[in-house]
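Open question from group meeting: does this chain pack into something compact, or does most of it stay loose? Before anyone orders reagents, we agreed to write out a predicted structure and look at it together. Recording both the input and the output here so the notebook holds the full record.
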Amino acid sequence: MSRVAPHLGILAGLQSEARCLSGTGHQIALSGARLEGARRAALSLIAGGATHLLSFGLAGGLDPALVPGTLLLPTHLLMPDGRSVPVDGGWHARVRPLLAALRPNTAAMVGTDEAVATAALFARTGASAVDMESHVLARAAAGLPFLILRVVADGADATLPPAALVGIRPDGTTNLTAVLGSVLHRPSQVPALIRLGRAAAKAQATLRAAARLGEPTGFVAH
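Structure tokens returned:
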């Protein structure tokens, strides 16, 4: 009986996240940080023959103890309906020691269909962080091995300025015109944008390091 060759499909939100995986040769689909985009991207990965699915990118911190740049390698994902879905145990066990130098946090993450108040979500779930893509990929996996590798981009006490929310195109690129327009309309958000930019830089550095340490064996399914 022939064995199907492993084929890794990766769901990310932004092109800046995908660039951290440059040169790996894996199939990558982008959500554009939109729920419907995540659904389309997840289905495209499976249609493209993915045998293993990885949610990769940034996340919003919920646990006040976690600072921007913290690597997240959760063992479970809390779904919007309250269910707890485990990631693939064998895959997780293989990747975790490869990333040990980055001290990954393995507490459960939570997925949401829409932005919610982080304090209320942490109080209700106790989850380390939140994103709007991992749970979409978990639903689409339907039995395929599934793993999450995310990095805290903004701490639990951070409030995203309006410019950060309007500045992402559906293809995952940055819409500088929209960002500048938002800043001109509301200049008071500039300090928050600067803080967010610094936090995002730390998160991207961790994401790149994780991608480097995880290759060539960790993210290749066995």
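Observations to bring back to the group:
The chain has a mean pLDDT of 86.
The longest strand covers residues 52-61.
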